[in-house]
Amino acid sequence: MSQTTQSPLMGQMMSQPLLISSIIRHADRYFGNAEIVSRRVEGDIHRYTYRDCHKRARQIANALGGFGVKMGERVATLAWNGYRHMELYYAISGSGAVMHTINPRLHAEQIAYIVNHAEDQYLFFDLTFLPLVEVFAAHCKTVKGFVLMCDKERMPAISRIPNLLCYEDLIANNSDQYEWPLFDENSASSLCYTSGTTGNPKGALYSHRSTVLHSLASVMPDVFNLSARDAVLPVVPMFHVNAWGLPYSVPMVGAKMVFPGPALDGKSVYELFEQEKVSFSAGVPTVWLGLLNHVAQNNLEFSSFKRTVIGGSACPPGMMKTFRHQYGVEVVHAWGMTEMSPLGTACTLQAHHLDLSDDQQQSILEKQGHAVFGVDMKIVDDDGSELPWDGKTYGNLLVKGPWIIGSYFKSESGDVLEHGWFPTGDVATITEDGYMQITDRSKDVIKSGGEWIGSIDLENIAMTHPAVQQAACIGVFHPKWDERPMLVVVKKPDAEVSKEELIKFYEGKIAKWWTPDDVAFVDALPLGATGKVLKNKMREQFHGYKLPTA
Ligand code: ADP
Fold it and tell me: Among 187, 182, 138, 190, which residue's Cα sits nearest to residue 164?
């Protein structure tokens, strides 16, 4: 980390630590009647207010104290987006313990590995995950109790889970008299493991300071642009990089919160959008596919939806156009990663872009965008020399800032930084005026005859073809060129397109040598625990495949 010097004259403002508890206290005091609406695992809709949430979070904080959970100790959750999960966000971090959200889409062994690595003391989980917890509970070495997030009536009569407790019992048996403790803002607040597509998952340990700063930055107009007039539905799960910080930023501005629970299919999400007048949402592209299909197939419209942030993987331009032109929904393309809390960049137009044609504006909006204040970025070559911002030269993307990782939790290799910068593993270009565009993840770049071909461009073009639902491009072995691009396509239901047509579709859109050598049609692409296409799995599937050009 960079060195700082102490000035002989220090500022004379109050020294008040930036703590997560201050967010829910603020929401209670100034937006106490704003609503949190949740589709519950039980199937019904639950509604209450920030004031109620704050009260119950204090009750759970008392329960944790009763368990003997100490500052800095980890408490895990395995839960959907819902009000009880939100209470835990504040109860655990606010009391000084560390909120460890676990992705339930991981395998039971991976979850047990993470729980043991984090040394979780308690594990809170939704009813949906009872069978999953039964599989791995016995392998958790440090967990003293498992809390089922339901009421007494829904507790199983018998269970293999040791020391199984009931969430609503904890609420009933604990007082709401609780003072959030004050402590150093650099104390650990929460822990997220990367999905570990290669090797074991690694933990990013956030602090109260990093979380509060990230929340403040994320609500700015050219980022999420959130206010007390919004109703926000986080489609991105609370177990995936803290739902991009929305459980903090939404109460911070006093917006209404709408939690979808486990029902993430297009129909259920659409219903909630309309019933609760949702104006803002955020998620990875794959979930929007389901919603857009449902809306298109049923000739529906959005009556209140105004803006969505799409990130986690590249937003296909066709999806952005559909949202913008067909439904009048503004799309903010954003980029980040678990190691960055996750927000790095967001793409919006500037005053001098407003007179451009729609096509020109669209081509800017398709980029991943500008660094959010607090984040700095640069692109470098393999020797670490900085590369020009000309919108063409691509290089390894490095970032730094107060909510970017310095080292992984309990990692033996220590500092992961290169001269104070975090290497993201992404390859990108940056334009003269600072718009960053991801070309690829460095491990997914297709290396053809010593030159690089970015897979995202090839996928985006394929996905503008009317018959293509989803496309992914990988490098496949070629005896002359090392690798050549191969396109793997999921067709839209009832749509037809041939391999030759798709290859021809690239004509005039890219350099000729970038054109995929082959196309394979599949029923579905392999998706990882965070809804992203697993390219390493695809490369395994096509290992040894003989290209027609080989
Ligand atoms: P994991 O892939 O392990 O779930 P993250 O969710 O942290 O981890 O993923 C971060 C990565 O996702 C980035 O390094 C980048 O490769 C990719 N990514 C995120 N947002 C975008 C985007 N808007 N466009 C392209 N790639 C993105």
Answer: 138
pLDDT digit string (tens) for 505-544? Answer: 999 998 899 999 999 999 999 988 888 899 999 999 999 9
Structure tokens at 81: 């987006």
In our burial notation (b when 16+ CB lie closer than 10 A, e otherwise), range 272-299 reads: bbeebebbbbbbbbbbbbbbbebbeeee
Indicate the top mutation candidate among 103, 426, 444 to test ligand 1's pocket, ranked by most ligand atoms within 8 A of CB.
426
Separation CA 515–CA 505 (nearest Å): 9
339 belongs to the catalytic site: yes
**With bands split at pLDDT 50, 70 and 90, how would you rate the model's confidence at 198?**
low
Contact yes or no for 458/490 (Cβ under 8 A): no
Pocket test for ligand 1, best of 194, 333, 335 (most atoms within 8 A of CB): 335
Candidate ranges 50-64, 440-454, 478-492, 529-543; pick with highest mean pLDDT? 50-64
Q: Ligand 1: which residues within 6 Å by Cβ? A: 194-195, 197, 311-314, 333-338, 342, 368, 424-426, 438, 441, 530, 532
Q: What is the pLDDT of residues 253-282, one digit of tens each?
A: 999 999 999 999 999 999 999 999 999 999
Please state, in angstroms and rounded to a whole number, the distance separating the CA atoms of residues 16 and 11.
Answer: 13
Provide the token pair at 115.
């729980």
Look up 194 and say whether it is catalytic: yes
> Which atom number of ligand 1 is nearest to the Cα of residue 197?
3
Is-contact 513 489, C-beta < 8 A? Answer: no
Query: What per-residue confidence (pLDDT) applies to 128?
Result: 96
Domains in the chain, CATH or no CATH each? 17-210 (3.40.50.12780), 264-401+415-442 (3.40.50.12780), 444-541 (3.30.300.30)
pLDDT band for position 2 (cuts 50, 70, 90):
low
Between the CA of 441 and the centroid of ligand 1 the distance, in Å, is: 8
Distance 337 CA to ligand 1 centre (A): 5
Angstrom distance (rounded) from CA 260 to CA 37: 9
Is residue 520 a contact partner of residue 488, using CB atoms and an 8 Å limit?
Answer: yes
513 tagged catalytic: no
Query: How far, in Å, CA of 39 to CA of 265, rounded?
Result: 13
From the candidates 452, 464, 491, 499, give the one annotated as an active-site residue. 452
The atom of ligand 1 lying closest to the CA of 342 is 7
197 has a pLDDT exceeding 80: no
